[in-house]
Design a protein that fits this description.
Elements lengths: L9 H13 L4 H15 L13 H12 L10 H10 L1
Length: about 90
């Protein structure tokens, strides 16, 4: 039997361990399941694609980059919440 070693961010490992434990698995078993599914599928066993961002979000990203159409700054969290609730 071969040993597979991979490096992942500590938080990714922790979250994966918790997720798999909630499913009754350990991470090693989950990785073996993925590898077997990839072999059975003859490829990645799930869709890999670019996440589509809607036009409103794209505009908000562009506005943030250009520092335009921004609200605030606010002096307190309550002030920011009040401004959000006004819309």
């Amino acid at each position: 039997m071969a040993t597979l070693q991979i490096r992942v961010d500590d938080l990714v490992k922790k979250n994966a361990d918790q997720l798999f434990a909630s499913l009754g698995l350990d991470t090693s078993t989950a990785v073996r399941m993925f590898l077997n599914a990839a072999i059975e599928f003859d490829g990645i066993p799930f869709a890999i694609s670019h996440r589509r961002i809607n036009k409103e979000s794209l505009q908000a990203i562009e506005d943030a980059r250009l520092c335009k159409n921004l609200n605030g700054p606010y002096n307190t969290g309550e002030e920011a919440v009040r401004a959000m609730l006004e819309d």
